[in-house]
Amino acid sequence: MSFISLLWVLLLGSLLGLELIGKVPPTLHTPLMSGANAISGITMLAALTLIVKAEGNVPLLIIGSVSLGFALFNVVGGFFVTDRMLAMFSRKPSNKK
Amino acid sequence: MNLPVIIKFVIDLIAVLLLALGIKGLSKVKSARDANRLAAFAMSLSVLGLLSYYLGTSGIAIQSWIWIIIGSIIGSLFGAILAKKVPMTSMPETVALFNGCGGMSSLLVALGVAIFPISSSIENFDFFKSIINEVSISVSIFVGAITFTGSIVAMAKLQGWLSTPGWTQSKGRHFVNIVFAVASLIAFFDLINGSTSSIWLLVIVSSLLGIGVTLPIGGADMPVVISLLNSYSGIAAAAAGFVVDSQLLIVAGAMVGAAGLILTQVMCKGMNRSLVSVLFGGSLSSQSTTSSGSGEYTNITSCSVEECALTLEAANKVIIVPGYGLAVAQAQHTLREVTKKLEQNGIEVVYAIHPVAGRMPGHMNVLLAEADVPYEQLKEMDVVNPDFPATDVVLVLGANDVVNPQAKNDSSSPLYGMPVLDVQEARTVFVIKRGMSAGYSGIKNDLFDLPNTSMVFGDAKKVLNDLIGELKDLGVGEK
């Protein structure tokens, strides 16, 4: 990928993000923030790349592994906690009365 | 193009599509839970895509597998445990912690690449490309470090582990932060010029900058900061995407970055604060104590729990205004007991939710949902405001600034212009509160002086418990 096309990707991704969140009820702001936060843990892919390309360089492997750990902490924790919050919303209407 | 490249391309495309659908779905109550799972699925898919690509091309060494597995298991395990254990009231801090770790991850990737250049950046080396590489590494480290230290400070402050030190409220802090910013800029250009050692300078000063910027901000503004830092962690991820040449990372990071900015804007609007004043204005309470809103209360009516119960019993329509004080007192379950009794007596009960009730948009909804309050009874501000004139009793629990009529009537008030709940329109207003202390803005609340407002002093949980007892004595909800 050339640098210019990566910049296009960046631009379009940002526009997509702006567009997606246009109208959100305040109710969902906290779960949304938490869900988006989990997605930002996508850096785990970069950490994976680092580990795969380390070619036996142990310090690099360790850095990559720690980085992967931090990213997955963010991703797994983020999605679980979002699900916990959302479960409370969706459960309610059914067991009313 | 060979097969693994095509497969990875297709998987990445699907993952981006699903992530976008996930964020979109998270903005509707009905689809939110499925959308969250969809996003989680998309993330796992993207990992499979990346692994299969390397398996199909260069292969993955056993040694790499070992480190992948170690990192994944430890990270996922801690994340899952924390997510299951943490109480709902600490949600803002938890999001901050997760967010900080995301920033740390981006920082480490960039650091790793900077110290040990990986093979991909060496093959087809050219000057232009190496500049881009250095820039993206620097941005990733800079933003990643700010995200990490900023989030940790935010978490510590929300948890009450860290107070706002006095010196951070002086003008001097701007000077200190400017020094940090300039130093990181110098390190940044040094790094581009090929001085690898300045990378540590960059790490240190950007970490300090994250602390220096977050520390002076008051607790009430912290959610805005967390939301902004959430946006930063997206930017850090996008920068890391440039470092390792991954379009998927860039798109996902940019989406989160942009979405986080919008959310930050929305939260600022709800609190009537501009982003600039949140970031550079310091703690609100320290500056506004001397400003217009302060003054003595002249006409406070205080009443007993018994009177409150009698009035409630005679009401047809009751609106509850919950605030962060309710959450702090962990009284949402007790509140639910009270409203159940009222409902059994045929009294209509509605909860009025201010957009920033509970310090974070939607946080109060989560807390009340946890206490089994039916979702349909939670009414947003714009929906519920016209109902107040037809309401018999309003119960204000641990909320203060969001029910201050000054925001509408007094153009000299710092709160002026902030959207508030028009509780004073109701026939009777009960404010349950520990004492006469001001809210987070540090401003006097004119509501307390109004003739139709009565104060019930005491801890929210205790008052509500007493209220249950009184209502029982009156025979409310005994049928």
TrEMBL record, chain A:
InterPro entries: NADP_transhyd_a_C (IPR024605). It comes from Prochlorococcus marinus str. MIT 9116. Its EC number is 7.1.1.1. It is found in: Cell inner membrane. One of its GO terms (biological process) is NADPH regeneration. The transhydrogenation between NADH and NADP is coupled to respiration and ATP hydrolysis and functions as a proton pump across the membrane. Its main location: membrane. It is an enzyme of class 7 (translocase). The chain crosses the membrane at residues 33-52, 59-81. This is proton-translocating NAD(P)(+) transhydrogenase. Keywords: Cell inner membrane, Cell membrane, Membrane, NAD, NADP, Oxidoreductase, Translocase, Transmembrane, Transmembrane helix. One of its GO terms (cellular component) is plasma membrane. It is a multi-pass membrane protein. Residues 7-91 form the NAD(P) transhydrogenase alpha subunit C-terminal domain. One of its GO terms (molecular function) is proton-translocating NAD(P)+ transhydrogenase activity. It catalyses: NAD(+) + NADPH + H(+)(in) = NADH + NADP(+) + H(+)(out).
